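Ticket closed. Logging final result for O-GlcNAc transferase C-terminal domain-containing protein.
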Amino acid sequence: MTLYNLIKKVTPPKAKRYIKAALYDNKYINFARVTLGIRRNRSESLIRLWQFAEQNRSGKAEKIYQRLSRLERTNLTNYTLSALATLRLKNAEGACEIFEQGMRIYPEDNWLRIYYLQTCAHHNYVQRYFRFMQLISGAELTNTSAADFYKEVINAGIPLSFLINYHTIKQACTPDEFKSLQQYFISHISKNHFDFQTAKSAIYLGKHLDIETEFFQNMYETACKSFHSKKDSQKILHNLKVIASLSLPFIPSEEAITEFIESCKQLASESITLNSPSKDLLFEWGSWQCIFTSPDAGARQYHHAMRALERFSFSTWPELNYTASHVVGQPPTSRNPAKKIRIGFIVYDFMPMMSGLLRRLDKNLFETVYLRPGNESNSNIAKGWLASTDNIVEFPADDTKPAIKIIAAQKLDIIVSGPSTLSMFFPLMARLAHLQMILLEPNWTNGLTNSDYYISWRPAEPVKPDEFYQTAVSYLEHPPYWIERPAHTASTTLSETERDEIRKRLLNCGPEQHIYLCANTPPKVHPLMDEMFHDLLKADPDARIAILRSDIPSGTILKARLTKKLGQDINRCIFLTTLTKQDAHSLLMSVDCCLDSFPLCGMSSSFDAMMLGVPVVTLPFDIPFGKWTASIYNYIGVSGLVASNQREYIELAMRVAADKLWREQKIQEIKEKSSLYVESVTAFEELQNFLIKAWERKLAGLPHANWINGEWQGQ
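Final structure:
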């Protein structure tokens, strides 16, 4: 069996049971050694350890990857696993270095070359690949263009990398070269058919990355042809049609959102049932998130789009149109008022700002359940969830049907959730508790039949909620979260030497340059910000703009978009891959100015930045998630960092970057005042009071209503 097949081989069912039993075993590596036969550094044992991590059953995969990345490279297996583990740790350049070392020693190994090619393709390391291949071949390579590289990539069976980097490749090619490359791609997939999963991914990427309609349609039709003669071809083709029709660009236009709504209605009328959202879509599919990133149009159309999506979903996956038996059979009005309120929190265990709320709910009034989608993660936040609840229930993150049944079986009175991903969004279309509420995230389920309340912070929300929200809102006067006090306050300060070292290591920049960091995710960096970046680079000749997460698909289109807008100044932008939490915090503290995104601003990232004492320049906008950062400043009493227009935004950013004395004053002021929202008992008590009042209203048989200024509206 080849090394590739060994690594890809699925862990046997018996081993899976053992791994599941080890979920709470802190000595997981010792467990793996005993149960799976891990001994020293034998190749078979290391591969099993890799499988153990890939299953992610222990929630401690990162530690396994760290161990594998440090293997003594004495054989082909060790080189391969060390490089792959380094890649899993989000260090693509480090992985390439290990692959290159291995290929020098094992030049005949094809899989090592394929892994190297795949890594270079995904990260668009075109010239690096050709330089190294020329070095080890000893011959001069003549065909070294981006088009040549991606033809080799496509021919090697890695076509998705072409789609991921589509816009960047287009900018690197002449029009004729790119047209030839497009034709080569289509020719390849017509001869070497996509499997079903790859077809779904290709179609999703084509829409999400906003690839030209003509090429996308050609790719879509070619991909579909390979399934016409398959068993269940009608359902397969309908599944692909669903993804093609309902996937959206990561920042869609108003027209695209309107088309989404009409497509939902059309697909619903076809009444073709599929398996389940988790099986038929992709884990990363989340058109609700795309609609939300379209500032004004998206916010105002959002609940219409979600209502249309619900209609389609109930038609396509009837199991979503479900009401738990305890909700039907036991109306809350017939309940004994003295019985405890059974409340469940549904959120990933690495999500901050909520576990402390669960832990502090009055035990005389509430019985708590933490419902975790998927496996336990390896984080301090996860430990907080474990310590916070009366009961822990795990439901599958990759299978909607049993997820609904498991949640329903808990017979919950109230669900509080942050359903950002497919694994939580679709189950919450069902009626699984008497009251279903959203907290922490944007109001993703706004417009769905079974979404009852959106809990948020009044100063950070639009003044007129009815213009944006179909769901009843609970606007609280304090941030309705439990923000933990940092465990090590010393880490919030860097010496000048440490600061310079971090800038050099992560950015390759010296102390003389002004580093402006936009730490928000690429979907929040709206085209409206492109002009602001352009003006900032023109106004400050020492400016460098750093942007995070350039390695995710939306990051590639952001880079291509900014390249088109900024021209030669794109060379003054630094596109970083996803960083570790430690590096991200270090970077925040080492830059000269942090730029908030516009018109959607940061939220949890802004709370984090201020606990570190990092000044964030912001420009508020009166839409959902448009003025969180400004509201935090107002709440803690920090002035001078909130702009009133785009010109002032740039002026404030330049002052923060250039005026070291003023910046240091702001850093100290923010550090001192940010404690106002840390572990706030007042904020918690306000939230708990709303939960009690909402439940009392339900017991009284009254309809949902807005809760603002501590009272029900419109009574």
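The longest helix spans residues 295-316. No further action required.
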